[in-house]
Every structure is written in C-alpha cells, then in structure tokens.
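re: ur question from earlier - yeah i can do the single chain one, its not a big deal. heres the input i used so u can compare w yours
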Amino acid sequence: MTDEIYGPWPPGTPLSVTNPQRHAARLAKRAAKQKRKKARAAAIKRRHTVGRGAEYYAYLRSDAWKAVKRRYLESKMPKVCYVCGKTWDRSFEFHHLTYRTLGNELLRDIAPVCRACHEAVHKRNREHPEESIRKSTKRLRGKQRPKTPV
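and the output i got, formated as tokens:
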C-alpha cells in the first residue's frame, strides 16, 4: 500500500516531488554549491592568515629572504615608504604586496614601508578582509601620500 502512495521514490522524498531524478539532481547541485562556497570562504581566510604561520616567520629569518632584501636595496627601485613617501632609513620594513609569490618574490612584489605605515596596512587588511593586501596598501597610499603640485 505504501508503494501506491509514495511510489518508487526514496524515503524522505517530499510528496510534492513529481520527478525524483530531477529532485535528486537539484539536491546534488545545491550541495555542490554549498561546498564551493565553503571552499571560497576557506581560501579567503587562508589568504589573510598566510603571513602568520611558523613557516612564514622561518622564511623571514632565512638567507633567501635576506638576499631578496639585499637585491631590492641594490636595485634602482624606489627607496621611500610606499605609503607615505618618507625617505629611506634603517628602520624600514619590507612589505609583501602579495603572498602568492612567497619564496619566489619579484622586486615589484615587495615594497619598503615605514613601521607606522606597515602596521596601518595590516590593520586595514584585518578590518577589510575581502580586499587583497595589495589593494589595502594602495588605498592607504592614496590617503597618506602628499599631493604633488602639477
């Protein structure tokens, strides 16, 4: 008797479902969409926490990172704070504009910044996690760099 009421559909299928195959396909599609959404959220979280791992700090102490900094200082790249334009001094730090090339940085992927601007960049990036680190840096750069007369 139950077969006559419910038909050949799997248990738990709503009575309003007229096509069980289509219903199963919709459920599978919804589950896949939720899985992609979770993966995107995890990727965003990873992108904003990549700089906090033990391997990152080990890299910053490595000879490879020291060589990148030395290469930057010996190059013709600007030696002023990327954000506020302050002239270079020994207290400057190098800021990664992207973490994608970590360990394989091009000189354009790092920028010298004074300590105050470096903290401001990372504070803004924590407040706006949807922005890339490069975009956060550029937004602060536009706010703090003095306008030069044309």
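The longest strand covers residues 93-96. not sure if urs matches, ping me
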